[in-house]
């Protein structure tokens, strides 16, 4: 608990920056990684959240891999 108090507050926009970087670099994220950044798990073949579109792109280990695109 003390360690949480010592860490500076994380910007609420940081998660969106990380999604944008993954999008720009063509990185695939697992369902768990998307959940940690967005706060809910993607579902269906294509899923939209905020300014991003997530599309199923195979598997990473036992999890679904998601390709990320930014809405225009």
From TrEMBL:
Protein name, UniProt field: Uncharacterized protein
Keywords of this entry: Plasmid
